[in-house]
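User: I've been trying to design a sequence by hand for this structure and keep getting stuck. Would you show me what you'd pick, starting by listing the structure so we're on the same page?

Assistant: Good idea, let's start from the same input. This is the structure you sent:
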């Protein structure tokens, strides 16, 4: 009896299962036939171009912009989008160790900015300059026509011939100078050279011995790291060619601790809509610096060569240097209209 009931149940289940499978197969076949039988609509009839095409283009462009910001563009993209290599409309001319790399990389977060990744040294290097403007343009990254290219070569700020050469290329170019408290900058400059010597297993002088003249016990103005920090002297040479309005001074110390307000000032100076936001900048406790967030998947910190630990400097030498720079700083504030809390 029990055996009979079980057989009946199995039979019912079989029929039910066959019915379900049959229906599914029928539906699949029907959909397939429908797809095959219906005429393929021309794109225009399925959706209005204004609804769909910009969406696709934007999505694609976001990818393209991202690649451009990373300094990449494929041959196909160059051809498809008429990408161009444009002369810079703004140059970060210095100051060495002021935070020039951080500034360039952070500005590159802006969708309308494309950076020249390498320092090109066109205007300060006679051999490069002799290669001509087309060589310089050829060193520029590909960009969309509405974007602006920015390059940085910190040696421009202190090199005699550069202002005139840049003026000859573009007399209305925008010039960015990023400065730090002059003594800190000089120590940073020294630290970079020291690291280079150490890498080659060479010995090097102490900062104090370079910065102070042993014969006079005064600040050694022949020492390049000291000379570079006399910002006003260099700026005055530039002002023979460009009006002060064409320069924007960036506070390199604030760019370290709170970069966004400094970047917003630069956006305004470059007449760019404000696009860099706090989202794009996050503090990385391990690095001890702000790092860059382009989007949910792509972020980066600057290389380890940025943000070195400085050697301890004799406090009396620090004070001597600060006193030495003080009058030059005052002049710099006066000329630029930007005041810092430097000692
Ligand atoms: P230190 O190495 O003395 O700390 P430049 O790019 O002109 O060579 O400047 C280097 C300096 O940029 C570094 O000097 C560092 O302090 C500063 N800097 C500013 N913002 C930075 C950031 N987000 N990450 C790393 N370094 C940064």
């Amino acid at each position: 009896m029990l055996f009979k009931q079980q057989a009946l149940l199995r039979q019912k289940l079989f029929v039910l299962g066959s019915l379900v499978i049959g229906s599914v197969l029928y539906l699949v076949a029907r959909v397939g036939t429908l797809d095959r039988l219906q005429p393929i609509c021309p794109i225009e009839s399925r959706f209005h171009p204004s609804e769909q095409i910009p969406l696709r283009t934007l999505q694609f462009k976001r990818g393209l912009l991202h690649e451009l910001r990373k300094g990449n563009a494929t041959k196909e993209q160059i051809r498809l989008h008429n990408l161009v290599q444009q002369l810079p409309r703004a140059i970060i001319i210095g100051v060495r160790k002021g935070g020039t790399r951080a500034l360039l990389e952070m500005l590159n977060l802006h969708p309308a900015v494309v950076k020249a990744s390498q320092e090109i040294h066109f205007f300060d290097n006679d051999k490069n300059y002799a290669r001509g403007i087309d060589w310089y343009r050829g060193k520029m990254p590909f960009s969309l026509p509405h974007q602006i290219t920015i390059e940085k070569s910190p040696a421009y700020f202190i090199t005699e011939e550069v202002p005139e050469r840049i003026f000859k290329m573009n007399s209305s170019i925008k010039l960015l100078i990023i400065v730090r408290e002059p003594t800190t900058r000089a120590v940073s400059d020294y630290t970079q050279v020291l690291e280079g010597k150490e890498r080659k297993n060479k010995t090097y002088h102490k900062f104090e011995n370079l910065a102070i003249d042993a014969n006079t016990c005064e600040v050694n103005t022949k020492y390049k790291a000291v000379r570079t920090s006399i910002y006003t002297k260099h700026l005055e040479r530039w002002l023979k060619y460009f009006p002060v309005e064409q320069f924007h001074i960036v506070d390199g110390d604030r760019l370290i601790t709170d970069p966004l307000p400094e970047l917003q000032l630069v956006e305004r100076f470059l007449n760019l809509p404000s696009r860099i936001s706090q989202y794009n900048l996050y503090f990385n406790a391990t690095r001890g610096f702000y790092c860059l967030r382009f989007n949910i998947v792509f972020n980066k910190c600057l290389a380890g060569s940025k943000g070195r630990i400085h050697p301890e400097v004799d406090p009396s030498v620090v004070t001597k240097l600060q006193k030495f720079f003080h009058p030059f700083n005052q002049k710099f504030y006066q000329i630029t209209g930007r005041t810092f809390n430097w000692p």
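That's my pick for every position. To get oriented when you compare it with your attempt: Residues 96-102, 154, 188, 255-256, 289-290, 302, 306-308 surround adenosine-3'-5'-diphosphate (CB under 6 Å). Confidence is low (pLDDT under 50) at residues 25-61.
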